[in-house]
Amino acid sequence: MSKRQLPRWSDLKPILGFKSPFSRTDEVAHAVTISQLRTIGKGKTPRAVFDYTDGAAGEELSYGRAYEAYRRLEFHPHVLRDVSSVDTSISIFGQKSALPFVFSPTGFTRMMHYQGEPAVAKVAAEFGIPYTLSTLGTTSIEDLAAAAPETRKWFQLYLWREKATRYELVERAAAAGYEAIMLTVDTVVGGMRVRDVENGLTIPPQLTLKTMADMARYPKWWGNLLTTKPLEFASLKSTGGTVAELMNNVFDPSITMKDVEWLKENWPGKLIVKGVQNVNDAAMLANAGVDAVVLSNHGGRQLDRSVVPLELLPSVKAAISGTATQLFIDGGALSGSDVVGGIGLGADAVLVGRAYLYGIMAGGEAGVRRAAQILQGEVEQTMRLMGITSLDQLTPDMVRFRGQGTS
């Protein structure tokens, strides 16, 4: 029989799972999913701010369906492959991008965290991916270029009713060295974002009795808001109303293919059109020679019950096959496996927005970095488990929606 003895501290210490109550842990650094960053971010930002990021239009059916579409994807992996080394890169406009996702444009990023768009752009440079600055950003075209000179920068463009303003924005983006214009075409009017209305969210946030009471719960957020430069759109003066009211007052509802043709003639860089939700529209744009189209329903924030981009992807891929136009997809991707699934169904790149916004709400630049690390790790893990070493090895039989047959 084994002789019993009292355990020694040196034997117990390596297996003890608890930590001193006086030690501090970095919850952002320890997050292992985007969902966990979302939870952390929700606890650090006022409800109206979180809901602005998390919410969608109407009954939020479009966003819910887009999210669920990724849940319905099924992978058919190969085994007995050497996957000790994987290459996660893709080609965008003939240039290498280190990961298969792009940081998409998001408005009013400094509302989520005072570090704002420069924090996101800097992380994009670290990970070797493009970042898209929104027209409704809270950092100017020039300031973003100065803050993140190494970042591959795109500029997302809304067309104003006032034509002089749209021309000026295009000229400024060209002068600041932006690689691409991303023309957004699904915002002829603003969507009904019920959460924003219920929360009384205005741009910028107003100091009402309700918001002042909120300060007691989120003193750090409010302290950063009140001690940094005024929170406003960098490319226009704020209206004091909701984002939907801003869109209705400022955006041009008469946008047509003539505006796309004008940009092709006057913009020296690459031209991307975002907000495409129809096979025929995608084919029309590809035939017109745009450099990329983005299948997107604006994250479900415009037309509720709109088409699910991921479900539309295979049909559009077939329709524009043989053209030089690249195909991107936006909306609903919150994990690296989602990104791989989008690539497998035919996308050349997947745009992510909410994923990094949850990160910036959770921890500023460090939170965005953690979001990128999570997505990168999940992409690599998914590739290895699927038995591929590069994304061009994905074949149509490896990614499909459940119920479409078996291999």
From TrEMBL:
Single GO molecular-function term?
Answer: FMN binding
- Which cofactors does this protein require? FMN
Give the Pfam families listed for this entry. Answer: FMN_dh
Return the Gene3D superfamilies for the record.
Answer: Aldolase class I
The residue ranges of the FMN hydroxy acid dehydrogenase domain are: 26-404
Please verify whether the record's keywords include Transport. Answer: no
* Keyword terms: Flavoprotein, FMN, Oxidoreductase
Return the InterPro entries for the record.
Aldolase_TIM, Alpha-hydoxy_acid_DH_FMN, FMN-dep_DH, FMN_HAD, FMN_hydac_DH_AS
**Which PROSITE patterns does the protein's record reference?**
FMN_HYDROXY_ACID_DH_1, FMN_HYDROXY_ACID_DH_2
Family, similarity comment: Belongs to the FMN-dependent alpha-hydroxy acid dehydrogenase family.
Q: What name goes with this protein?
A: Unannotated protein
